[in-house]
TrEMBL record:
Subcellular compartments: Membrane
Protein name: Adhesion G protein-coupled receptor G11
Keyword entries, A-Z: Membrane, Transmembrane, Transmembrane helix
Organism name: Sinocyclocheilus rhinocerous
Molecular function via GO: G protein-coupled receptor activity
InterPro entries: GAIN_dom_sf, GPCR_2-like_7TM, GPCR_2_secretin-like, GPS
Transmembrane segments: 70-92, 104-120, 140-161, 173-195, 226-247, 268-290
């Protein structure tokens, strides 16, 4: 509760031969914490200022959690609906030979579809109070999350190949990228599962608690998820800049050949293309980097809105971006 306690010696200390260095740094060294229900006992072998740090989940209010939950359920529900349409259309027209761009896109659709299914069913599994089932659900959702990140990178790699398609050829391309997209996340999740890092996690608000199946160790979460996405973001954002540059060059070359009356149509097309690229490359997940300090709560809302509706946006915009952008990029050659 923002309270800091100090133990005083009961006497004045002055004229020290060596100055005491004050550093704004909290450490758990020399202390052990015993938690029994709502009671916390601290045992330390030295004297200093003492404080009980708030749980990472204590900063969110019940109203904010309720609002974010409704946004998430609505967004994930709509995402599932539109992703289902995209997958259904693909399998309905499977007799038509699909291009590599479509195959990569469908794998991304599948990863996002499974992620939404896992997230929407997670809380119900947690309520069942089955430890084994909760661990399996946590591992499954983590796998879907890492797979989605990986397919963002694969999509970026595929766009890079589209730019240099006439100079780069990879044998058994779809098989190789499928292994890259689905296998590494399975290996990571298997290791974490064996280490026993999955289980039931409680999100505490000012009035109630909400449980879900997820990673119990915060260090594992930050190093594996945040760390992994950092590498993905650097690669996908670089690809985003390169692709936009190529598309802008193509746009300028084409605008010089058409009448001015047609130029008003390019604004909407540009917005759709940028939206499609952001969704396909997972750039909206970067708002997680701002979930600290004063920007923490606003970033939660922005992050939740963009990423819960990501499946809907991806299915609506990325088909256009995949077909038009790839063909336009190829057209420059």
């Amino acid at each position: 509760n923002d309270e800091v306690y100090a133990i005083e010696m009961g006497t004045e200390i002055s004229n020290l031969s060596d100055a005491i260095r004050h550093q704004p740094n909290w450490t758990t060294e020399g202390c052990s914490t015993l938690i029994k229900g709502e009671n916390i006992t601290c045992k330390c072998e030295h004297l200093t200022f003492f404080a009980i740090p708030p749980n990472e989940n204590h900063f969110i209010s019940k109203n904010d959690l309720t609002a974010l939950t409704y946004i998430t359920y609505i967004g994930c529900g709509l995402s599932l609906f539109f992703l289902s349409i995209g997958l259904f259309m693909h399998f309905l027209m499977r007799k038509v030979k699909a291009t590599d761009s479509v195959r990569v896109l469908i794998n991304l659709f599948m990863a996002l579809f499974l992620l939404n299914v896992a997230f929407l069913s997670n809380e119900y599994v947690a309520r069942a109070k089955d430890i084994t089932a909760c661990k399996v659900m946590a591992g499954f959702m983590h796998y879907c999350l890492l797979s989605s990140f990986t397919w963002f990178a694969v999509e970026a790699f595929h766009l890079c190949l589209q730019i240099a398609k006439h100079s780069v050829t990879i044998k058994h391309y779809i098989i190789k990228i499928s292994v890259v997209g689905w296998a590494p996340p399975a290996l990571v999740v298997s290791i974490i599962y064996v280490l026993g890092k999955y289980g039931e996690q409680t999100i505490t608000t000012d009035t109630s608690n909400v449980t879900m199946c997820w990673i119990l160790d915060s260090d594992v979460h930050y190093y594996v998820n945040i760390g992994y996405y950092c590498f993905i973001f650097i690669f996908t954002f670089s690809t985003f800049v390169v692709v936009l540059r190529w598309l802008s060059m193509l746009k300028l070359s084409r605008l010089n050949k058409v009448e001015k009356v047609q130029r008003s149509r390019t604004a909407t097309s540009d917005i759709t293309t940028i939206l499609g690229l952001c969704c396909m490359l997972g750039l909206t997940w970067s708002f997680a980097f701002f979930s600290f300090g004063a920007l923490r709560l606003p970033s939660y809302y922005i992050f939740t809105i963009l990423n819960s509706f990501q499946g809907e946006s991806t299915s609506a915009a990325s088909f256009k971006c995949i077909y038009l952008s790839s063909d336009q990029l190829l057209g420059m050659h």
